[in-house]
Amino acid sequence: MPAKKLSDAEITALLPKAKGWSVVNGKLHREFACKDFVAAFGNMTRVALVAEAMNHHPEWFNVWNKVVIDLNTHSVKGISDYDFVLAEKINEIFEPLPPLHLPGSGKGQ
Amino acid sequence: MPAKKLSDAEITALLPKAKGWSVVNGKLHREFACKDFVAAFGNMTRVALVAEAMNHHPEWFNVWNKVVIDLNTHSVKGISDYDFVLAEKINEIFEPLPPLHLPGSGKGQ
Amino acid sequence: MPAKKLSDAEITALLPKAKGWSVVNGKLHREFACKDFVAAFGNMTRVALVAEAMNHHPEWFNVWNKVVIDLNTHSVKGISDYDFVLAEKINEIFEPLPPLHLPGSGKGQ
Amino acid sequence: MPAKKLSDAEITALLPKAKGWSVVNGKLHREFACKDFVAAFGNMTRVALVAEAMNHHPEWFNVWNKVVIDLNTHSVKGISDYDFVLAEKINEIFEPLPPLHLPGSGKGQ
User: Fold this and answer.
1) What pLDDT does D109 receive?
2) Which end of chain C has fewer CB atoms < 10 Å from its terminal CB, N or C?
């Protein structure tokens, strides 16, 4: 199925579900800080496997524990449904477990 | 610092701290089952980075979500302190967060 | 397209094109020796990307510069056309440049 | 051994040996175009292994087959001997085989 270009209204409607992503320079944008380079590059490898299987690849920058990702779709010259699908998969890779907020437990994870 | 060969008594004393590892055919051995291939190979990449930095590499087998790892040290013809260090790092990679058992919460992670 | 189980006659006919591969224990089998762990794991990462995109994964073993790969197809309980496609892609990854045979030059690469 | 900051004169003297690298914004800079994403990310994985073992990491950007790398050394606030060592290793990874110049052959590889 070819990528479908999203209108500004569609993007605005979808953004709240794409936790942590915003539109910067016409691309879906998010920055992650990992524990160290090993964690960052391990996550990048998982994203690479997912992206290659989708045949939809990120623009990304890394230095040590930091990973900056921009998503857009060349074939539609904008942001497509594919970008939101990949953004969601990237979130699952970088944030597999949401922090637990336990009242009174004194420790999270 | 060169690897130090461990005696059977030393290995027996250290094993309880190396959660999930046992001695099989004279090697530290553990098997992991991940969510899928993407998770398994992402973890393998993290182990590869750690192993290359230690210059101490695993013998390992993978098929889809399964990763089987054997550790020993050629230079000492046996199990060394390096193997236990790597085993510990591998555990941290494959099991970053122990499951929380919260009384009455009805859900873990 | 689902994987298609190959008969023994079909496998025998295809094997000569799959350079370096043989049938061992009912699987396509090949062993590679790379320059070092970095080269071996770099090639494994390329194979992982290709395999995930095909949704067809190898059984493989690695220690330092050595990579041992077995291919078969669970869904058909045997060797399928997918295994030969993956074997060919693996060859291209591990052996990117065929040796040059230059008359009189006395050296290839 | 800690990284050693290089003077402008030292950098100018070393640059001719670092094939393809130039100084951009105070960092060693080079851009590579690979065959495709699989080749690019396979090479990035090899660089990641080398960088983690050196504990000296690149700033890098990737989109599909393109890899842009900047090297400098935070601890010395400039370019150090480590950057030139890593640049050389990166060249060996991305350009494993120098082009053959065969008299009269009219083609390399």
Assistant:
1) 31
2) N
> CA of D42: how far to CAs of A1, C72, C102, D69, D77, in Å?
27, 24, 30, 15, 30
Average pLDDT taken over every residue of chain C: 91
Which residue type is seen at A27?
A: K
B8-14+27-94 is classed in which CATH architecture?
2-Layer Sandwich (3.30)
- Per-residue pLDDT at C96: 75
For CA atoms A75, B42, A42, B73, give the dihedral sign.
negative
User: What single-letter DSSP state applies at residue D97?
Assistant: S
Degrees to nearest 5, angle at CA B38 with C57 and D60:
115
CA–CA distances in Å: residue C41 to residues B86, B89, D35:
17, 19, 19
The predicted-structure confidence for A65-101, as pLDDT tens digits, reads as follows 999 999 999 999 999 999 999 999 999 999 975 545 5
| Backbone φ and ψ of D22, nearest 5° | -135, 170
| D49: closest chain A residue by CA | A38
Cβ contact B14:B7 at 8 Å: no
- Architecture (CATH level 2) of domain C8-94: 2-Layer Sandwich (3.30)
Supply B16's token pair: 């309880």
The token pair at B54 is: 């230690």
Are residues A47 and A88 in contact, defined by beta-carbon separation less than 8 angstroms?
A: no
Residue B60 DSSP SS3? strand
| Contact call for A52 and C55, based on CB within 8 A | no
Other C-beta atoms lying within 10 Å of the C-beta of residue C78: 17
Question: Residues A45, A47, A50, CA angle at the centre, nearest 5°?
Answer: 110
* Cβ contact A57–D37 (<8 Å): yes
Length of chain A (residues) = 109
Through-space distance between the first and last CA atoms of chain B, rounded to whole angstroms: 40
Q: Give the residue from C34, C44, C49, C92 with the most D CB atoms within 10 Å of its CB, the best one to mutate.
A: C49
Question: Which pLDDT score is estimated for B108?
Answer: 34
Q: C14 with C6: CB under 8 angstroms?
A: yes
